[in-house]
User: What shape does this take?
Amino acid sequence: MPEKGWDFEGWFIDGEFYSDNPSTSIIINADMTAMAVFAEEVDKVDLYMSLNGRGTVDPPEGGPYEYDLGTVVNISATPASNWRFVEWVVDGMDYSTDKNTTLLMDSDKDVLAVFRCNCGNVKFEHMEER
Assistant: This one.
């Protein structure tokens, strides 16, 4: 049984993983070493992804995506046809204009990818009547 602040990871017999069940049976037919492995609990934080405009993001739009506190997460944005990536906004603050960047998960994060239409670049040609 793990103490407070710890998680049971598994049983190892002679250095090899045996089971992740805290209560397990072992057939002893020779000398062997059994070891219970525990890991300190890590606080978890959530990432929520959304977008403004047209495109896709990775991790995909939605969430929550759960990470260990302190994890560095790669995020990327891909604009749709005739759209461009403008910036990342994290927790309401401008964060980066690089469509591929990293994010330190030191708290829960709300991430917005902003895309803009290239609609202003459309050229119209005048056609003369025949």
